[in-house]
């Protein structure tokens, strides 16, 4: 083995060869030292006195962080007792403490020493000098002591921490609990332990780093664009004179519902944390955050309003296309009572039982405890029949379209008076269906998009919400995740997500569901932002200009139309 550098060599030479290498007589480091040691000018008693902290350190931390305790003892024993070897000429060779052992101590002990307020015990691997002027040595030329514990046995044992222990400081990314007596309820069991809390929103740590923030920023942008797009259609159908009658009134009300649904993003723009969290630790609910209460109420109301008016649109399409009926034409009072009344009742019920809160995704909604009975089951009562009716309408249209194609092939025989031709009544009915589809195909596509989006959203949360329910009650999984995060110094978020991922909504599906509902307003704009709509705006603006213009009777010419 190579000798230590000149400073260490000089120290070895400065003593007699007989006393340079000394057998370790036993003491604090008996478990770690089985080699001759170099004492230098110090006495054995003085060194043992300096190492008196080791038994106490072992007593305090060995059950909680065995790996840290082992690394701490190995480092200090190798530092205090350099390994000493002599060659055939009795020339001593001294091996000083390893920098890697020091770094292992820092890595495995930082978190536990930080929480207990004992960071002063942590060594500084850069400035530490085993011998004056000589730094810690690389593995090739140092006193390596093999660890006594390794693998799983060296891990963080969070169950060994006393129940009444409160951290002095919390390692990143955790937040010090300034009101531990407030956060000891069962609702905080997975968020606050031993004086440290997961910062709100907790989902930012449960998924890969920055995934949720990036994904929900994207869905917020889409929802913001949807809000603007749906507002344009809403104003168009509200202001333009040709739009305020049946069936355009259905689109008007659906546009209003979609706008309300999309505009909930305005509550989180620029301050997502302020919506989701009442403070650094506590998730928002309607009692501790009025912004969450207002946003959640509007989201619940608009979700059901969108569902109800989409269902009304589907029923109207079915009645008009299949039965040639205009049932809703003179029944808008009833429609408004139903399609705005049901959302109002459900919203008021949610607020009445104080169940509006933020738990995951990016907006406040009904709490997991009540979300099935108050949100998903009532929505299913509206969605499922509407979806089936829409499928029936679609297949009926497809059947008529196919038959229309077949009958067009018979046109030659009909012109020759073939008695197998279509009867006049039947031909009239088929013509009505095709005409209805040509007139209402936009509403048909919107109904498909809205219904499909709501069904996907409903199915996703119906299937994935159970994961959150299981996680909220599973203290073992939360402890395993916390152990993983505290195992050693550094950022372990990406490594630890695999522990909790089976108990959380699937990230890809969650983002897909949020993206689909965020696009509803954009679909509305694409489908109904047609050329004729802008012509109507142009005509109305021109008429207003004529009405208030000093010219009075000037004629409209082609240049006054929008270029389309």
Write structural notes for this entry.
There is one protein chain. With 564 residues, this protein is mainly alpha-helical. It folds into two domains: 146 residues, Frizzled cysteine-rich domain, CATH 1.10.2000; 329 residues, Rhodopsin 7-helix transmembrane proteins (Rhopdopsin 7-helix transmembrane proteins). It contains 20 helices and seven strands. The strands form three sheets. Strands 3-5-4 form a three-stranded antiparallel beta sheet, with no helix packed on it. A two-stranded antiparallel sheet has the order 1-2. Strands 6-7 form a two-stranded antiparallel sheet. Helix 8 packs parallel to helix 19 and helix 11 packs antiparallel against helix 15. The protein starts with 5 loop residues before the first helix and ends in a 16-residue tail after the last helix.
Poorly predicted tracts of residues: 1-16, 552-564
Full CATH superfamily name of the largest domain: Rhodopsin 7-helix transmembrane proteins
Write down the CATH class of the largest domain.
Mainly Alpha
Order of helices and strands: HHHHHEEHEEEHHHHHHEEHHHHHHHH
CATH topology of the largest domain: Rhopdopsin 7-helix transmembrane proteins
CATH architecture heading of the largest domain: Up-down Bundle
Taken as a percent bin, the fraction of beta residues is under 5%
How much helix, percentage-wise, in residues?
55-70%
Average of per-residue pLDDT values:
82
Strand tally: 7
Structural class: mainly alpha
Label the overall shape.
elongated
Q: Please describe the biggest sheet, giving its number of strands, its sense, and whether it closes into a barrel.
A: 3 strands, antiparallel
Radius of gyration: 37 Å
Number of helices: 20
Number of domains: 2
Question: How many angstroms does the end-to-end distance come to?
Answer: 86 Å
Strand order of the largest sheet: 3-5-4
């Amino acid at each position: 083995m190579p000798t230590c550098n000149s400073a260490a060599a000089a120290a070895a030479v400065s003593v007699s060869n007989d006393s340079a290498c000394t057998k370790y007589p036993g003491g604090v480091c008996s478990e770690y030292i089985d080699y001759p040691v170099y004492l230098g000018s110090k006495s054995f008693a003085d060194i043992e006195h300096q190492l008196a902290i080791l038994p106490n350190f072992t007593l305090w931390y060995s059950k909680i962080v065995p790996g840290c305790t082992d690394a701490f003892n190995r480092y200090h024993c190798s530092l205090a007792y350099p390994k000493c070897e002599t060659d055939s000429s009795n020339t001593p060779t001294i091996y000083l403490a390893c920098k890697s052992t020091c770094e292992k101590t820092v890595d495995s002990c930082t978190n536990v020493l930080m929480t207990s307020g004992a960071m002063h015990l942590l060594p500084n691997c850069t400035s530490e000098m085993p011998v004056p002027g000589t730094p810690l040595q690389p593995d090739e030329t140092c006193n390596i002591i093999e660890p006594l514990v390794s693998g799983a046995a060296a891990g963080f044992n969070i169950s060994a921490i006393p129940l009444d222990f409160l951290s002095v400081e919390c390692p990143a990314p955790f937040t010090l609990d300034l009101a531990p007596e407030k956060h000891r309820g069962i609702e905080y069991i997975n968020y606050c332990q031993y004086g440290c809390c997961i910062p709100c929103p907790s989902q930012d740590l449960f998924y890969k780093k920055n995934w949720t923030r990036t994904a929900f920023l994207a869905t917020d942008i889409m929802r913001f664009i949807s809000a603007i797009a749906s507002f344009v259609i809403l104003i168009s159908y509200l202001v333009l004179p040709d739009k305020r009658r049946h069936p355009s009134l259905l689109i008007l009300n659906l546009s209003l519902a979609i706008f309300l649904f999309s505009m909930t993003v305005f509550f989180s723009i620029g301050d997502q944390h302020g919506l989701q969290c009442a403070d650094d630790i506590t998730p928002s609910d309607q009692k501790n955050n009025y912004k969450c209460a207002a946003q959640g109420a509007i989201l619940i109301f608009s979700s059901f309003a969108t569902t109800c008016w989409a269902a009304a649109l589907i029923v109207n399409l079915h009645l008009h296309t299949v039965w040639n009926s205009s049932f809703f034409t003179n029944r808008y009072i009833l429609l408004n009572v139903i399609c705005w009344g049901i959302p109002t009742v459900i919203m008021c019920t949610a607020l009445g039982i104080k169940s509006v809160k933020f738990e995951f995704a990016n907006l406040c909604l009904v709490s997991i405890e009540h979300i099935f009975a108050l949100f998903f089951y009532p929505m299913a009562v509206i969605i499922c029949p509407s979806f089936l009716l829409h499928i029936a309408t679609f297949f009926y249209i497809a059947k008529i379209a196919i038959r229309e194609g077949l009958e067009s092939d018979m046109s030659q025989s009909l012109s020759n008076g073939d008695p197998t031709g279509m009867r006049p009544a039947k031909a009239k009915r088929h013509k009505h269906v095709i005409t209805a589809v040509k007139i209402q195909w936009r509403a048909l596509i919107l109904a498909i998009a809205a219904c499909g989006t709501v069904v996907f959203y409903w199915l996703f949360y119906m299937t994935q919400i159970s994961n959150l329910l299981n996680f909220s009650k599973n203290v073992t999984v939360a402890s395993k995740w916390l152990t993983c995060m505290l195992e050693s110094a550094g950022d372990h978020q990406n490594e630890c997500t695999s522990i909790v991922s089976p108990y959380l909504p699937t990230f890809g599906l969650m983002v897909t569901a949020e993206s689909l509902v965020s696009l509803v307003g954009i679909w509305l704009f694409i489908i109904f932002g047609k050329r004729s709509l802008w012509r109507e705006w142009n005509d109305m603006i021109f008429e207003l200009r004529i009405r208030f213009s000093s010219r009075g009777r000037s004629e409209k010419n082609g240049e006054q139309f929008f270029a389309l």
